[in-house]
Amino acid sequence: MPFLGQDWRSPGWSWIKTEDGWKRCESWSRDLERETNPRTISHSIILNSDDEEIFSNEEQEYTSKKRKKDHFRNDTDTQCFYREKWIYVHKESTRERHGYCTLGEAFNRLDFSSAIQDIRRFTYVVKLLQLIAKSQLTSLSGVAQKNYFNVLDKIVRKVLDDHQNPRLIKDLLQDLSSTLCILIRGVGKSVLVGNINIWICRLETILHWQQQLQNLQVTKVNDGLTLSDLPLHMLNNILYRLSDGWDIVTLGQVTPTLSMLSEDRRLWKKLCQYHFAEKQFCRHLILSEKGHVEWKLMYFALQKHYPPREQYGDTLHFCRHCSILFWKDCRLALLFKDSGHPCTATDPDSCFMPVSPQHFIDLFKF
Q1: Which of 3, 8, 14, 355 is the most buried (most CB within 10 A)?
Q2: Where are the domains of the chain?
Q3: CB atoms within 10 A of CB 1
Q4: How far, in Å, CA of 49 to CA of 68, rounded?
């Protein structure tokens, strides 16, 4: 029987041939250089079910070294992942195909690393990672979990570099840290894949990211046109193109003129009508002393009871005819017209349906 190593599903160690035989490459020196600024975490935060600290004060130094050692052995940068534009979503075995496609397999094979560089797909990928963090993290395989944190690392770096969409990432990291705290305390230790030290190191990384985002400051540009220089009708058009109420509130804090425009009742009425149905208005109707509808207050009240309408520039698509999940871009559209693509529908466009982040997860619930 061949020796399979620690995990037969992983690519394995890197080996080099020497005069004395094959030797495994050590990459700890490179990782140690990258960890020049070690992140610390208060161990009193992470408690077990008996509200006792996992590590005593005497063992903290030893545990920190061991945790880094385990983390180096599971470095996400050494993993190789697929970059496919489409995959089959098969839920049962057939003559042609054995087994079924899992959520972790789909997450590994679809090209999410490149998708976050596309502004149309960025919000979609972040929302998908947030849903996985809330309920599906433990269902991922070990390789899929490494890929998950690898994609998350690229997202955080992108936000820190271009200063765009920090609020989305803060919400994602908050949900992920809450889930990991619950799992590490003991509720889900039995379902965590890998050493507990690896997960503690991941939690430390998340807390470090949260601190970086908290200290994030947008650099002010002194030269060029600013919002204050735009006419009122253009500022009003900008506000009407926003689909998130918090974005409108934040933009209204920039200048007094934007603050006045952001309180427009027609603006909030249109926003409520875009996200919610009329039946929902009747259940949570809020009137002022003069009998007018408070649309701004209604929007935030409705948001607590009903999910807002999801809006994405681009999403994954699913072919109902041949069960293919894919990114619908120009190159893939050309493949559909050629004979090289596996879709056999006579009219593929009629079979395509956009896949929301929640629908993506539901596709793999058996």
Answers
A1: 355
A2: 99-215, 244-305, 316-355
A3: 3
A4: 25
Alpha-carbon distance of 250 to 40, in angstroms, equals: 32
> Mean pLDDT, to the nearest integer, of 338-360?
68
Would you mind telling me the total number of residues written for the chain in this entry?
A: 366
Q: What Rg do the C-alpha atoms of the chain give, in angstroms?
A: 25
The residues near 70 (Cβ < 8 Å, ≥ 6 apart) are 195, 197, 198, 201
What letter does residue 134 receive in the DSSP assignment?
I
CB 127 within 8 A of CB 309: no
pTM, to two decimals: 0.69
What is the token pair recorded at 261?
Answer: 């425009």
Whole-number pLDDT of residue 94 = 62
Give the confidence band of 338 by pLDDT, cuts at 50, 70, 90: very low
Q: What angle do CA 308, 310, 315 make, to 5 degrees?
A: 170
Tokens of 191: 């379902």
Strands (E), 68-115: 86-88
DSSP-based three-state secondary structure for 84: strand
State how far the Cα of 61 lies from the Cα of 244, in Å rounded to an integer.
46
**Closest to 264 (Cα-Cα) out of 299, 231, 303:** 299
What is d(CA 133, CA 289) in angstroms, rounded to the nearest whole number?
Answer: 43
Q: Which two tokens stand for residue 77?
A: 């940068």
3-class DSSP assignment, residue 353: strand
Residue 2, CA atoms < 13 Å, CB-side half-sphere: 4
CA distances (Å), 34 to each of 155, 221, 233, 249, in order? 19, 32, 50, 39
User: In 3D, which of 294, 241, 245 has the Cα closest to residue 265?
Assistant: 294
Count of C-beta atoms within a 10 Å radius of residue 44:
8
Number of Cβ within 10 Å of residue 307's Cβ equals: 10
Is residue 55 within 8 A of residue 44, CB to CB? The reply is no
Q: What's the pLDDT tens digit per position in 44-100?
A: 444 444 444 444 444 455 455 555 555 545 544 444 455 677 788 876 666 655 556
d(CA 111, CA 118): 11
CA contacts within 13 A on the Cβ side of 138: 13
- Is residue 343 over pLDDT 80? no
